[in-house]
Amino acid sequence: MAVAKDFAMSDNERKLRVLIVDDEEDLVTFLAKRLFKRGYHVVTTTTGPEALAIATRESFDVAIVDLKMPHMDGVEVIEKLNVLQPFLESIMFTGHGNTETALEAGKLDVFKYLTKPCDFEVIIEAIEGAGVQRRNKLREQFQEKLQDVMEHASTPRDILEASNKLREEYEQD
Amino acid sequence: MNRTNNKLNTCLQDLDATLGKLRDAGQSGELIQEALEISANCQQMSAETESQLADTRARLEHFIEFAPLSIYIKDDQLSYQLMNNTGLETLGKNEQDVIGKTDFDLFPAPVARRINKREKQVLETGRTVQFDGVLPLDNDDRYYFSATLFPIDRDDKIIGLIGLVEDHTELHTSERALSQQKEELSEARSFLRGVLENSQDIIFLTKPTGKIISINNGAVASLGYTNAEATEKYAKDLAVDPQQMVDLFKEAFSSGHSNCFEIKLLRRDGSEVIGSLSLTTITDQFGHIVEVAGICRDITNRLKLQEDLIQTERLAAIGKMAAGVAHEINNPLAIIEMISGVIDETLVDAEIDAESRSELREAVDSLLLQTRRCASITHSLLGFSRKSKGAKISVKVTDILDELIALMRPELRRIDVTISKDFTQDLPLIETDITLLEQVLVNLVRNALDAIEEKAPDSPELGISAELCEDPDEGARIAITITDNGIGIEEDNLNQIFDLFYTSKPPGKGTGLGLSIVHNILNKLGGDISVESEVGVGTSFTLMLPIHS
After folding, report:
1. What are the domain boundaries of chain A?
2. pLDDT tens for residues B240-249?
3. Which of B156, B160, B174, B321 is the most buried (most CB within 10 A)?
4. Distance from CA of B330 to the nearest CA of A (A)
């Protein structure tokens, strides 16, 4: 039975929250261990449906998703994760540097695809890059919405309330 | 007629004599009686003569009218006085159209002049003239004739001529038709001979005994025998299994023909040709078999192609499987890599002595290195089995060459070849179809290795170089050169090596497809391939690849 394992520690600083979805349990376990050591908040699962269940409860910055999995493949998982969490950046993890998959991943708006086995530092780099991209997108969207509010809100109080709401929604400090 | 006239003359002389005597003697009664008798005689004779003359004329007229000859009579002005029925019918005219007219009234001037010239000759010389000619008729037909012209003389003066004209039209046309038929026949024959002679198929003709009478050019080319050499042989001598040929002949004798889809024939040099043979017996008008014709299509290449296709399919299947295996291995490899990393990281905090730590660290490094090696193999395999999508992407040629060397390492190691790389640094990226380029390179390296293996030099060497090449016509291109120190290629064969099915390798080893595929692929990629080689020294293939496709 696949069980979600939470490696999260005390959330003193803003750690990147990583969701790992791969049917290779050993891979998931050791990858999570190493990422945790590097200071990431990591949640793992070995099936797509469980990953979606987790994503309804908890928000993530980056998802590392294996392409080939039984029941629900990585493409479908990423599609559904994107619906649940529009700002979640995905990294496709695959045993095959297949062009077709890469193309499909391109349609999917995947931040990067990595071929197994992959150097750990390359994975770290990808996660960091994905994190930066996510923050940038959030900021952009926040600025846009804020502009919108400034133009349409009537009172300063409205503006403040709206901008505070936006700040929360788009994770801006 | 002369005889009658003579008689008549004799009678008249008698009459004269009698009348003279009558006058001299004055004795009238007897003499007059006599004269009367003579006169009666004369009259009788004259009547006889007249009837004979009429008879003769009637016969002559009949002959003239109904002779199968055209007959005419002209006066000394060369106007028609008479023309018989046959003549009129031939010309398609009535008597009144002709009589009193000259040829210039009847025929086109050039024709009339020609006839006129001959007829004048007759009038002038008084000799018979014969000539052949042709007349255009009103119905656009042509009338070929042979004419004989006789002079008519009276009192040593030529007063006209008679023309006898024989119709040669039928003779002429049948002659012409015959010669045309002959021509057509010889044309058809030479066409057929050309087809048979130059057919790529092996065609031979034998006596019923199987003794070869002749072979065509196709057979000369395919089997290597000259026609003279072949005629020394029996058909069964051409077969690898003579009995098979004998059986085919027997079958042909009984049913008129026989077929064999696959028969092995022997070339002059002892090698084999696989052919699809059919024998047909040729019989004379009595049904006796006089010759046997054999037509045989060389299907060696077709069979080879079939085999190669099967081989290619098999390779594709193996490639697919290899890709699947590689994919499956990547997961455990990823895990090994991950665990190695975990061990490495754990070592940092582990409470062990420094020596153990460094030993373990070394072990883990080695583990990571080997994992990466495995990964490079599986990635190459996956890359290689990838089907070409026809997509061109920008690539670094040197990366592809490095990947190629990694992929082919097992083969390179087998013959312990030293690889010397000579890559110009920072070459521009080229836009190309990697899968196809890889296929070309693998082919060339395999060929190089085969050439090296065959020669087995003390120090096998494979050189791979990549450099930028500026050409005023072609622009900037990248040249990839693969050099070996193998057996080399004979100069005579150099221009054939890119031909389909050309191979110097023993049967079963080379398909003769490799380099022709290489050539085709390079055409597709917009590149070129050239070769330099020296027997016993080595060969070097150079690919020129455009930077932009």
Report:
1. 5-136, 137-169
2. 999 999 999 9
3. B160
4. 5
